[in-house]
């Protein structure tokens, strides 16, 4: 009986420590967009996977139109990019995390092509305060329309 309890505790600790977060589908689409852009770069050789959200914001503009802002981290793995099953990949502890920001407009839950979705990922140690400010400025300009609230004035979901 004690062995069974120890095994169940170990299994629960494994799943709890996996850092996998469930994301709503609208945010998951933005993460997928960032991963697609990142893995298209020739200098990126290894697969990256979602680690966790840093901040996220959702601003409803009406008529089933929503503006999404999502700041998150990706972790590099030992698998080559293009790997179909990332669950078998191990995290590379010797590589920095990727710091990513995406912002985009959705209509009916789908990413709209206009304005063009913005995705920016950079290794975390290289991220500067100026880059952070440029990201926010770019996203605020995308999401602002006359008479609506700006992104920074909206309430986050975290």
Automatic annotation (TrEMBL):
<dbReference type="GO" id="GO:0006935">
    <property type="term" value="P:chemotaxis"/>
</dbReference>
<dbReference type="InterPro" id="IPR046350">
    <property type="entry name" value="Cystatin_sf"/>
</dbReference>
<keyword id="KW-0732">Signal</keyword>
<keyword id="KW-0964">Secreted</keyword>
<keyword id="KW-1015">Disulfide bond</keyword>
<dbReference type="GO" id="GO:0050994">
    <property type="term" value="P:regulation of lipid catabolic process"/>
</dbReference>
<dbReference type="InterPro" id="IPR029562">
    <property type="entry name" value="Chemerin"/>
</dbReference>
<keyword id="KW-0221">Differentiation</keyword>
<dbReference type="GO" id="GO:0030154">
    <property type="term" value="P:cell differentiation"/>
</dbReference>
<protein>
    <recommendedName>
        <fullName>Retinoic acid receptor responder protein 2</fullName>
    </recommendedName>
</protein>
<dbReference type="GO" id="GO:0005576">
    <property type="term" value="C:extracellular region"/>
</dbReference>
<dbReference type="GO" id="GO:0006954">
    <property type="term" value="P:inflammatory response"/>
</dbReference>
<keyword id="KW-0145">Chemotaxis</keyword>
<keyword id="KW-0395">Inflammatory response</keyword>
<dbReference type="GO" id="GO:0005102">
    <property type="term" value="F:signaling receptor binding"/>
</dbReference>
<feature type="signal peptide">
    <location>
        <begin position="1"/>
        <end position="20"/>
    </location>
</feature>
């Amino acid at each position: 009986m004690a062995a069974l309890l120890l095994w169940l505790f170990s299994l629960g600790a494994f799943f709890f420590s996996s850092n996998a977060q469930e994301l709503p589908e609208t945010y998951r689409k933005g993460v997928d967009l960032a991963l697609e852009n990142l893995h298209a770069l020739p200098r990126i050789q290894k697969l990256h996977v979602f680690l966790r959200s840093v901040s996220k914001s959702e601003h409803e503009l009406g008529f089933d139109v929503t503006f999404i802002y999502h700041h998150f981290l990706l972790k590099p793995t030992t698998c080559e990019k293009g790997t179909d099953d990332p669950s078998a990949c191990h995290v590379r502890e010797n590589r920095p995390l990727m710091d990513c920001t995406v912002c985009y407009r959705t209509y009916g839950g789908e990413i709209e092509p206009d304005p063009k979705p913005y995705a920016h990922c950079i290794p975390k140690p290289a991220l500067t305060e100026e880059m952070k400010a440029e990201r926010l400025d770019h996203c605020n300009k995308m999401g602002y329309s006359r008479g609506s609230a700006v992104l920074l004035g909206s309430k986050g979901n975290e």
